[in-house]
Design goal:
single chain; about 140 residues; mainly alpha; 7 helices
């Protein structure tokens, strides 16, 4: 009889190690994203939103489009009149990928479920959460500074 192979393969005592390593990476990535999003929300609420904050929160990566949506910046190259509601209205699908608390919490939930629920579709949920987090990091490299 063949040894038990976890959902993602491997031989004892390493069965499940790949799943666990991916899960830790996804959870850490989501936590870092949540912390960054919180800092950006804080700067918007305090009236200190910069171009990079607005671009990452909305997903609008072209600085000219950010200017078209929110108008010209005030003194110090910040947008003091922009609110979180304005940002939410201007958010694109890429903005959801970059800085949505719901998406990050969903990735954490899918990862925890994949580790604790034994079903044939759970590795797919884990890979989906990994793909979402990886896509967010790749897109974040295009955010204007």
């Amino acid at each position: 009889m063949a040894p038990y192979m976890g959902a993602m393969g491997g031989y004892p005592p390493y069965a499940g190690f790949t799943e666990f390593a991916i899960a830790v990476g996804v959870i850490l990535s989501a936590i870092v994203s949540l912390v960054g999003t919180s800092a950006r929300k804080r700067s918007i609420v305090l009236g200190e939103a910069k171009l990079s904050d607005l671009a990452e929160m909305t997903g609008i990566l072209d600085p000219r489009r950010v200017l078209a949506v929110f108008g010209p910046p005030g003194m110090g190259h910040t947008w003091p009149s922009v609110t979180l509601l304005d940002v939410r209205r201007a958010r694109t699908p890429m903005g959801w990928l970059l800085s949505s608390d719901l998406v990050d919490y969903a990735c954490i939930l899918a990862t925890v479920a994949a580790l604790n629920v034994h079903h044939k579709l759970m590795p797919l949920a884990l890979m989906g959460a990994l793909a979402v987090q990886l896509a967010g990091w790749i897109v974040s490299t295009r955010v204007p500074k």
